[in-house]
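Q: Sequence in, structure out?
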Amino acid sequence: MTIDIPEPIKVWSQFGHPILMWILFALTLYALYLGIQWRRTRFAEKDTKKDLLKKDFRTRHYQLGSLLLGLMVLGNLGGMAVTYINNGKLFVGPHLLVGLTMTGLIAVSASLSPLMQKGNELARYTHITLNTAIVGLFGWQAFSGMEIVQKILDKMS
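A: Exactly. Output:
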């Protein structure tokens, strides 16, 4: 069964993934900030801690992390689907492989939340390490993705 997608939709759908990923990269940096603030809150002195707790960094970090997990998985699948629809194949290269790696890392990182809530320090340090790797890989992905967007634009003109 073949679905006939109108050409304008096929062409312009190629830009949904990069736009979403740049938004997610910005949100990832904000989640990093929230996580750092939550860690700072945990180790703060009594008076400072009282003020920091009012800002609810923990809940905001947790909720944003959950959103990032879902959107990263959907964004990754969407990027692969659009690539396949437009080219009849996936291009197995560094951008795809790093994106898949990031998707796995964020899933493992999120799965550590119940352990962290119980005070497991190994889970906490693993979470921090995985998310630091994700931020670094995301930065690289942003620029390698722009090279792909440039190729698409060159092909269109």
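Residues 38 and 55 are 9 Å apart (CA to CA).
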